[in-house]
Amino acid sequence: MGAPEVPSTLRSWMSVVGEIARAANAAEPLDGVLATVAEQACALIGFEYCAVMLAEPDREHLRVAGSSGLSPDYVALVSDTGSLLIHPAGPHLDSPAAEAYRAGRTVAVPDVGSAVRFGRLRHLAPKQGYQALIAAPLHAPDSGTLGVIVAYSVAAREFGAPEMELIELLADQAALALETARLRSDQQNVITELSRTNAELHRSRAATEWAEQQHRRLMRLVLDEVGLAGLVTALAETLGASVTVEDRHGKVLARAPESGYHPPPDGAARRRRPVRAALDMLARQNEVVEVSADRRGRPGASAIGHPVGEAHGVWVAPVVVGGELAARLWVTNPRVAPEPVERRVIERFALVVALEVLKQQYLVDVEERLSGDLIGDLLHPGGPLHPQGVLDRAAALGHDLSRPHVVAVLALDPPGPAPRLAEVVHSATRQVARPLVGPHEDVQVLLFPDGRGLDDVLRGIIAQIEHALPERTATIAVGPVAVGLTDHEPAYRVARGAVRLRSAARPGGLVDVRDLGLAALLLEDGTPDALRRFARNLLRPVVAHDVRRGGDLLPTLRVWLAAGCSASTTARTLVVHPNTVAYRLASIEKLTGRSLRRSDTRLDLQLALTVRDIVGIEGR
Fold first, then answer.
1. pLDDT of residue 301
2. How far separated are the first and last CA of the chain, in Å rounded?
């Protein structure tokens, strides 16, 4: 008996499955495989058009990945991001394809004209000219629902069980084709990654050997004690780049090479966003940070190692001491962009630079202690007990106290110790003769060789301190010039009295009392009795008047002086008529016997009020 005859429908189905499987296994392009699925759906089930739609990665839209019979205009229309929404706002934007994807089941529409649930069909169907459609989801075992297959009929028709079963079988085949393509892609990625890993291993061996050579060289440099300049020169030669080490205030500590040197970004460039962001990152991580920006601050404007115009490749590494950023190591315009192994070499150099910076900081600490002891002996009441010893110790620190010196006093608000204050002062004065700096009593004393331009230097010190210590306010008072050793102590007393009065009344800024004349005696004495006597003698008649009549004159005088001697501003502040202010000011002039139009009268009154606040003078 012969073999049973295979039905024609089964033969057609087996042929379709075989063709799809061959296309998938032959690694044909995915859109071609899905177009084959669409063509076979039309031929096998008897549809005019068919499309395979896949979900976008965001799972918000469906797009046509393969089709048969559909016009390019219709494909473009349904591929629009506002067309096939998977989760539409309401039925007026819904579609059978989206419903089949969401529900994971086949959705049939026998007659588009009566499909009230799917508002998008009233807009889409006339564009292609179909009256019925059926949509089945593409289920993948490992990936879930990938998309849908949609078959369209020009005429309205009912879909029987055989047709629904066939469309679902084709959907399964399309899903298998998609899974096969995904697996093949994963396999290819693995092969590519293995090849890349093998190549990386070869490069890594060479890089490791190079890094070990640099490490041994670095250790030799440390043992040879070449210093910061030697370390920077060695790193510049290794990388074929310019290398700069600067402290946290921007002062250059060392740089190399001598010729062809490229500096790090200047102050204006550091305010641009890419550079500023890189510098901010240094506070959060101990690694090399790339700074790649052109003159307009745009990142990535040049090929690294091949600068275009004035753009250069720039890297910066933190130099950390005691958990704080102590310096920066800049690498500018290298031959080639540093690879990870080269960046690790830079980080190792930064560690050794940190040791050198720590050594220098230790020397600064020692100098601070010696300077403090020297200033304490110099400011001994009546002059130093051993003058020649003070001169010799000062000379050992690089200061010639036989020359005239300006005595300045620095106070911080709020008061208290300020770590590395001498370092900040030295950084601010690096362009002039270095001052002798040290603590004494509750302030810092600065001794400068007498010369021009000192006011600008002192304002620069105030700015540097308030930049380095943003929570503190700095006040500096400049006292008289000390010609001999015995002049330093009285000059210090004058400056100290001035800075204490200024700090109590209005902290911050520069106060010059070098030419104060007789008023300096009050500041030099600095005792409560002398200060109280000065303020009481000047303000006694005004205070007595306020005690008898209710206390309007002294408050008005305070506000008037604080308002820049403006009667109108004073009236607004006190909420009184300007004539009232004028009357009270006239009464003060009559009581004190002094004209408020004179600047020296205003200065004396302001000083008296300030002293009154400091020493706690009340109504006596």
1. 32
2. 139
Report the candidate in 365, 583, 567, 378 with the shortest Cα–Cα distance to residue 482.
378
CA atoms within 13 A on the CB side of 556: 26
pLDDT in tens, 251-279: 788 888 888 888 887 777 776 766 666 66
The DSSP H or E segment spanning 464 is: helix 454-468
For residue 105, CA distances in Å to 108, 116, 321, 365, 448 come to 10, 19, 66, 79, 90
Residue 388 neighbours by CB under 8 Å, 6+ apart: none
Which residues, listed in sequence order, are joined to residue 327 by a DSSP beta bridge?
Answer: 247, 319
Beta bridge partners of 43: none
Q: Which helix (H) or strand (E) holds 62?
A: strand 62-68
Q: Categorise residue 129: left if φ over 0, alpha if ψ from -120 to 50, beta otherwise.
A: left
Whether residue 601 is predicted with pLDDT greater than 70 in this model: the reply is: yes
CB atoms within 10 A of CB 210: 15
Cis peptide before 414 (omega within 30 of 0): yes
CB-based contacts of 119: which residues, under 8 Å, 6+ apart? 90, 91, 92, 93, 94
User: What are residue 400's phi and psi, to 5 degrees?
Assistant: -105, 95
Q: DSSP label at 50?
A: E
Q: Say whether pLDDT at 515 is over 70.
A: no
Confidence bin at 548 (pLDDT 50/70/90): confident
What Å distances lie between residue 426 and 72, 329, 582, CA to CA?
Answer: 76, 21, 50
| Most confident of the following: 57-61, 153-157, 200-204, 473-477 | 153-157
Q: List Cβ neighbours of 158 (8 Å cut-off, separation of 6 or more).
A: 110
Report the alpha-carbon distance of residue 436 to residue 461 in Å, rounded: 14
Q: b/e map of 477-490 (b: 16 or more CB within 10 Å)? A: bbbbebeebebbbb
The answer to whether 371 and 436 are in contact (CB under 8 A) is yes
Which segment of 23-27, 59-63, 295-299 scores lowest on mean pLDDT? 295-299
Average pLDDT for 134-147 = 85
pTM: 0.41
